[in-house]
Amino acid sequence: MMQQRPGNRAHIVCVQCHARKVKCDLQDRPDSCCANCRRSNQQCVRRHGVRARRKPPHAIGTTHVPHSPSPTVDAAYQDLGIPHAPQYLSRAKEAILRATQAAELPRPALLAALIDDYFNNVFSATPVVDPQDVAGPNASVLLLQAVCLSGSLVRQDRDGPTASFIFYEKVKTLLYLNYETDVIVNLKAMCLLSCWSSVPTNVVTLDGPWQWLGSAIRLALQIGLHRRSTYEGHPQASCLRRIFWFLANAERMMVACWGRLGSLRVECCDVQALTADDFPHKAIYATTFTRVIPVIEIVGRIAEMTIQKQVVSGEQTLHFIDRLCEWIHDLPDEVRLFDRDETRQPFNRHISELHIYYFVAIILTQMVGKQARQYWKPPLISVIAASALARIYEEIFYREQTQYLPSIHGFLSLVAAIPLIYFKSDSAQAEAERAEELEMIISVINSMKYKFGGCRLVYTKIQGLKQEVKAQAMALVDGAATAAESFDELDFAAIDGGDASAAFNTFFSVMDTLGMDMTAEDMGNGEAFNSIFNLEMG
Description:
By secondary structure, the chain is an all-alpha fold. It folds into three domains: about 15-85, no CATH class; about 110-280, no CATH class; about 310-535. The chain has helices at about 15-20, 35-40, 50-55, 70-80, 85-100, 110-120, 140-150, 160-175, 185-195, 210-225, 235-260, 285-305, 315-330, 350-365, 380-400, 410-420, 430-450, 455-475, 500-505, 525-535. Helix 16 runs antiparallel to helix 17 (about 430-450). Keywords: DNA-binding, Metal-binding, Nucleus, Transcription, Transcription regulation, Zinc. One of its GO terms (biological process) is DNA-templated transcription. This is Zn(2)-C6 fungal-type domain-containing protein.
């Protein structure tokens, strides 16, 4: 006998409750907003089933769907003397939601898996969401879609970029429709959007990390995250501090990568320093995230000085070196590559990534304030740092953990590759070692390029630079040239539509500055040189 449909099943439900498989009382609500949506302060949109979407032959326009307008939109219209947003806007939004399925969440099992992927593999670099934000039936649909986007980026599936693009479009649609009324939830979603771009970063577009990061920074400033008083007594104070410092780190790295002017002036803010206590769990990544901030600050300062074409003295360069020496000296034992007995610590990706930033900063200190020179010799300190980076990336690669690296590693890998590309030695063994290290970095980029547009651009650029250097060497051997071409002639600007040359400036160095055959003491600051590479320092 066929089972009868339960008599108490609701005939009218909203999109959010249907997606979460929870009971909805929309049909009993005269204000067209169910209790669940009202409790979570979300827009309540009536769901239309397949039958409800069918139109009679004579129907031309869309069917009117009652819903609860966004409070923020309503408030804006009330300021103009209009009690509610025009009804046609509500109908248009509902039509867009139905057409895009932006509020439709993945199946529960996949949703749970993607949330786990975020907290297990993405949170360490992008700690902007707390576990309770995406728990329970009233979790924000917008934030869930954004977390799904982040989780999809670290999956091994080669179809992952397709899923990532779908989630990206859903999050973008919900943001444009003012679907979520909680501004902090919107801010968290924007932070997550800033971590991915499907197109190369030299494409001028309204999508992409630079645009979303800028929007997130401006929203954060509206909220007041640049003022210490905002955090006092706030229930999400720790999470908001993590968001602020995530935005600061991200913009500094993008400024270094693309040579664009930043908008967040951290020196003008009075936000409390981030500590491990601001993280929900006492994990290694809590320490590595807080410890990387000073290194990224140095990278950002170098980028700003380069963009502004400042004349940098040797004392200023040594100041950066001294700060890096102090940083490595004060590093806690639990996040060192080597312990106090000079024994290699067990592999930990978070610790490895922390030191990647450190060695990249070393290379960048050799670029600040330099001008193009005739001689094409990377400073010895840059070559050593690049070799260290190659070995760290090798450990990550062979453990198949490159899938967990965020997109900024495209830039970090390029910085590591350039000294190795231009390094030349009379020793065949040294040449072979540098070539092997360069190929390892290329392998890492190759494994990431299918999901990050910027990494595809970096991969192409590295291959092009290799060919240029090879052609240049042949020309010198044939006597067709007597000097290396200048930095500008190498067209580094092509990496990002004309402004990325500021991020790299030059790896030229004359022999009387940092000779390849000089000892550390000959360089004029032997103690600093030794310290900066002494990872086992006590």
